[in-house]
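On to our target:
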Amino acid sequence: MYDFTTCPDRRNTSSYKYMDMLKMNPQVPEGIIPLSVADMEFKNAPEIAEGVYEYMKNSVLGYTAPTEGFLQAVTDWMKKRHNYEIKKEWIAVSDGVVPALSDLVRATSDEGDGVIILSPVYHPFKQTIEENNRKVVEIDLINKGRTYEIDYDNLEKAASDEKTKTIIFCNPHNPIGHVWTKTELKKVYDICVKNNVFIIDDEIHNDLIMPGYEHTVMAKIAPDAGMHMAVCTAPSKSFNLAGMQTSAIIIENRDIRRLYYKSRGRDHRYSVNVLGMEACRIAYTKCEKWLDECIDVIHENAVYFEEFMKKHFPEIVVYPLEGTYLLWCDFRPWGMDEKQLEEFMTKEALLFVDEGYIFGDSGKGFERFNLACPEFVIEDSLNRLLNAKKH
């Protein structure tokens, strides 16, 4: 059994989410834990800290190419955890999935071309497209109450435009927490392949699947699917290693892989964090039980959260947490606009979550809660919400 009850003190540790919380409200008292940025409020698996320490004692931390151990660990993990068989030469490294998205957008489209996103969606998708002088082709998911569906008609229309070259697809989806079914994936895949739209498949959360749901790597959806996409993976969400800045981008198509490396080279980014590669290797080879226990804790937090909201705020729609550790909630019944809602959360409830509007206009009035924390943090946060609403 691992320790998922201790909440490390991350103030004054350069934690982005804590610094952002204090920027929004400098008067936040000690003990308030933000539920925003997608990293965990858990202690890391001890095997990782111990293993990295041992590595540092015996290694020179110079320029390093992808190690054989790292490549083998990624290959074995994908096969064991996702039944996804890959070759080592398909693995392209990156200092993060978000930088890889930018590299892939440049590799698969030209300036002025269209890149599709399905909103509400992780906000760097849109930023990446705009910053690379591409056209954002934003298609709203269809809100069905407690779930979302893809608007296939609008997706087909957008994909059929000869200037649309790429889609950034979130699998499972952040922020709505939906694990796409094989049927849904196949429909997206068929539309994209028919219209020669390259798929950037962001699977950074693909290890974090809740009980009762099954994740499918999109590259498995058809025999040659891998030739039409890049599968973006990392240990950063699964094992809380975002600060290690190491990702494995799986690109089967040799031509796209070459263009990807050319795009990376434009910024003279030729290597990744040597300790990140070692931390990834250790996580994938020694920490699977830690991940399984972590998922159980997140699932229990989601159950507690939904029951609390059902009892005290039945008007608030809580979307089922199928994958990720990010819970999506519709607060529009409270009748506040997005700025009023943010003010209430940060000033009265002392709740620091990710505001729905950052994920696109269709996210206005929603909130995204990070459940990767000890249960007492969720309890304390929701009781603050209850007390603030009463007053």
About this structure: Residues 60-286 form a domain with the Aspartate Aminotransferase; domain 2 fold (CATH 3.40.640.10).
